[in-house]
Amino acid sequence: MVRANPEPEWDYEGEVLVRRRRVGPLDNAAYVVACPSTRAAILIDAADEVDRLVDAIGDLNLVAVLETHGHADHWQALAAIEARYDRAWVGAHADDLAMFPPPPPTHHFEHGEEIAFGSCRLRVLHTPGHTPGSVCFLGPGMVFTGDTLFPGGPGNTQTPLGDFPTILRSIRTQLMGLDQATIVYPGHGGSTTIGAEVAAFAQWEKRGW
Prior knowledge:
The chain is α/β, with parallel strands linked by helices. The protein has a single domain (12-207), classed as Ribonuclease Z/Hydroxyacylglutathione hydrolase-like (Metallo-beta-lactamase, Chain A), CATH 3.60.15. The chain has helices at residues 50-57, 78-84, 164-175, 194-198, 201-207, and strands at 12-13, 17-23, 28-34, 40-44, 61-66, 89-93, 107-109, 114-117, 120-126, 135-139, 142-146, 149-150, 153-154, 183-186, 192-193. It is globular. The N and C termini lie far apart (46 Å). 41% of the residues are buried.
């Protein structure tokens, strides 16, 4: 059956390929990021709707699942993805491991480490504030920010593990210095750019949330 509104083959084509799926009741954004030359790929946030994530992976060679943080809406499909792709490792920051169901991710991200898939790389940026173990993944001309940065401001910090000054510091030190053309792919909804968000940073800081 052909879908009435088929999803795009790729949302971005360049040094890496990016395929986005917006899934689940909270409009989570999950991303398949692939190496054009080898077809090796990673999945960022196994959020929900496992069948659509499997469809997005397609015939790519999934080597890893990278979790941006430990909130449950970002890993609802993780167990099913692990069962289907048993050669793919799963990573998260150690500070969020208690938020995952057993068994938790076995690879613990370190700030600055590089994740290889084929001839491509993503660099881990530790960006606490939304949760203690929140991370972003920096690629060529793009950054996957999880719930750290959205169009219009930082992620929610009005939770037991959230801290507004910490998330502002993370955004200021790890994200605002990137090239302004850098595409921001957040953990919910649509994308933005670093340049579009830099101008509002002082306003976010003033409003206090």
